[in-house]
Amino acid sequence: MYPLRPPPSARLRFRAVVAEDIGRLTDLRTDPTVRQFLGGMLPVDEARRRAERLVGAPDHVVVDAAGEFVGLLSVTQRHRWGWEVSYEIAATMWGQGLAQDAVGAVVAHVQRTAPGEDVVAVTQTANARSLRLLAVLGFVERDRFDEFGAEQVLLALPAATTSR
To answer: What is the pLDDT of residues 30-59, one digit of tens each?
Structure first.
């Protein structure tokens, strides 16, 4: 599974987080549009500290399209639920199908490297865009719960499902 390095696709490249990404990751995590359903934008200093901790992290990848920063994806073992895929895509990259391609590639990587295990994602029930993206990839609702002051939905792509 780790390091998380899905193979490149026709449009996307996945790579480790490097020091040069700290500014872009700080911008991503201080963007109110991107962070609307992720607990809100972070203070700049906190976003920078978190970005610095991601440099070289084996469970995170930066996604680039034609050399442009698309966003950040991660996969972590979520106790009892399976491998959780998380993503933050720059708002300037929305509407191009890049999130679907990126999340789909990461899901396929998890299914190849951790066969027989579920892949899950958690999002706020209010995040219609993310819910649509995950449904297109074959995720189905498994549970709802309150966390971070909002209703969340756990979606799962069962181990037997093939990623699209």
So the answer is: 999 999 988 888 999 999 999 999 999 999
164 pLDDT band, cuts 50/70/90, is very low
Count of positions (residues) in the chain = 164
Q: ∠ CA 140-145-151 to the nearest 5 degrees? A: 95
Residue of 141, 150, 98, 144 whose CA lies nearest to 120: 141
Residue 105 is part of a domain; what is its CATH number? 3.40.630.30
Q: At what angle do helices 22-29 and 44-54 cross, to 10 degrees?
A: 130
Partnered with residue 122 across adjacent β-strands are 154
| Whole-number Å distance between alpha carbons of 150 and 158 | 25
Domain that holds residue 26: 12-116
- Compute CA 95 distance to the chain's CA centroid, rounded to the nearest angstrom: 16
How does DSSP classify residue 22?
Answer: H
Q: Give φ, ψ of 2 to 5 degrees.
A: -105, 145
